[in-house]
Amino acid sequence: MTIEQQIITGIKEAFQTLFSHELSAGELVLQPTRKEFEGTFTFVVFPFAKVTKMAPEASGIKIGEFLKANTKVVDDYNVVKGFLNISVGKNAWLGVFDSLYQNPDFGQLPKNGQKVMVEYSSPNTNKPLHLGHLRNNFLGYSVSEILKANGYDVIKANLVNDRGIHICKSMVAYRHFGNGETPESSGLKGDHLAGKYYVIFDQQYKKQIQELAEKGQTEDQAKKNAPLILEAQEMLLKWEANDPEVIALWKTMNTWVYAGFDATYKKMGVDFDKFYYESDTYLLGKDIVDEGLAKEVFFKKTDGSVWVDLSSEGLDEKLVLRGDGTSVYITQDMGTCDLKYQDFEFDKSVYVVGNEQDYHFDVLFKIMRKLGRPYGNGLYHLSYGMVDLPTGKMKSREGTVVDADDLMQEMIDTAESHTKELGKIDGFNAEEAAALYETLGMGALKYFLLKVDPKKRMLFNPKESIEFQGNTGPFIQYSHARIAAILRKADQLGVDFSTNGYAGMDKLENAERELIVVLYDFEKKIKAAGEEFSPSLLAQYLFDLAKEYNRFYADLSIFNESDPKVQSFRIALSAMTAKTIKAGMKLLGINVPDRM
RNA sequence: GGUCCUGUAGCUCAAUUGGAUAGAGCAACUGCCUUCUAAGCAGUAGGUUUCAGGUUCGAUCCCUGACAGGAUCACCA
């Protein structure tokens, strides 16, 4: 039984004995005591005034006395207004520490037998990844790792958008203006090369629109009649008809792009278990349309188009198949949904996609449930907010994007200059130094993007570089490196801190107890982060942990401590903290250095 | 216009889902390296939680209405 459970049980018994009233454990909640008061857990008495038929303060005292007399863990209490603050005894905390320290599976909750698919990244192959994709990828990766730590079997999936009119735009522009350029000949990464032609297309297209407008066409007409867009549309048809020449160009350019993406993913430190390609899946879903018609979930209009009516669920009528029998976005998504299930029979399927598609996924999930899919209730849209610049939204065609490759490199360079400025590079060879810069730069970037609640949109100011001090990745990494130095020294001195059992110690300093309390929270935070699909909870926690450790580090000396048991304990506490930081940061996709 | 999301210190973000005097970091100011890494620690200052009502022992959180910002409402993806 955890400490909280013991206290809750005690409170339950208190209510039975003192007020002859039965309460379920679910009605009783403890919250952390605020720093300015004595105690670790607080029980709020106000809501039970009716039951106790006494003033909250008086009932708080009675309950507190009862707990002190009848439980092993409660050592002391105090009541402020209706708040019963509970202090847990030294030995209970040392017992908690021992069990954490001895648990080989600390940070990994037991397998729950459930399978979850996490789809993230899902890039378009006509342009390189940008800052928005970084948030998506880091989120998707981190959530996957968090779910693993929660006991899920996780499949990371990437649905690559490798076809469609936007891809054809890059191809058309390349055919006209490429002059046979390749990644090798230009020195450009493949994805950047494709992106270059996507931009060129847009520029030339705009030029043509203007020319047509000058010849008297309206803007709408000009947009439809510009030769480049007509050519792109024609190319899309040829692609669908398997035209050998078009397919050859498509394959060539895609190969370039994938090589570029591979490099970017590697730098990001993300990976996938399964790739889906829209070129394979874009025809799926039409059989589901038939099924939906047969089940009368869908209906057909006179022009032959097929619709679903979701007005009873607060949404609209929504098209699921065009009148000419061709697919729309959602047709294909229904098909892919089933395909994924056929492949993996997941219990849950998470889509990491920006909040601009909230409505789309709302519709998709409602449809799949109406169709009676067994996995219908396991579908979840992890909707995250856009990353805005001070100037507003990023637009790839207007060149206002922050490129992912550039930004990662900048972060690594900044880490290098910071480190050199601080003169902390003694004893590193060139290779180690480079690895450290990458660890720190990427740590800063990932932490920056993950510490914010995913669903909130966030601001990135390119002019103010991402911090390395305060609530940042490097701060947490630094705390780890500090501990690593202590552990090295302990090893050198031959101090044994692997011993089991600190429960009998005479004294527990405040800084030590506070640290144990925070360590004790780790698995609860993993659970919460998993339930809410929110790495930010974990990021926030790791900052608190590092802060608490640094307080301990400043307050108490380790190697000047004369009592060997206390010294050993403080090293063990440090080792436990390092282990927790490392494991927690791993769940965010962030590495921690042993020296920095 | 309909629907959804957001609004907290100068800036970037928290607040255990209704609890105590709303907390951190950055920026500003003051201390602390002859002692385990100062990318650190301790402290000062900074707030009408956009506004107005309501619900109750108690509201940043729930309800109603304004105001501001964003997204979405395509036979686009």
TrEMBL record:
The keyword Acetylation appears for this protein:
no
Q: Which domain of life is it from?
A: Bacteria
Task: Name the Pfam families for this protein.
Answer: DALR_1, tRNA-synt_1d
Cellular component, GO, one term = cytoplasm
Keywords recorded for this protein, A-Z: Aminoacyl-tRNA synthetase, ATP-binding, Cytoplasm, Ligase, Nucleotide-binding, Protein biosynthesis
'HIGH' region, short sequence motif: residues: 123-133
Report the Gene3D superfamilies cross-referenced here.
Arginyl tRNA synthetase N-terminal domain, HUPs, Isoleucyl-tRNA Synthetase, Domain 1
Gene Ontology terms, MF aspect: arginine-tRNA ligase activity; ATP binding
Quickly give the catalysed reaction.
Answer: tRNA(Arg) + L-arginine + ATP = L-arginyl-tRNA(Arg) + AMP + diphosphate
**Which NCBIfam families has this protein been placed in?**
argS
Subunit and partners: Monomer.
**Which HAMAP family does the record cross-reference, listed alphabetically?**
Arg_tRNA_synth (MF_00123)
Family classification? Belongs to the class-I aminoacyl-tRNA synthetase family.
Q: What is this protein called?
A: Arginine--tRNA ligase
List the lineage, top down.
Bacteria, Pseudomonadati, Bacteroidota, Cytophagia, Cytophagales
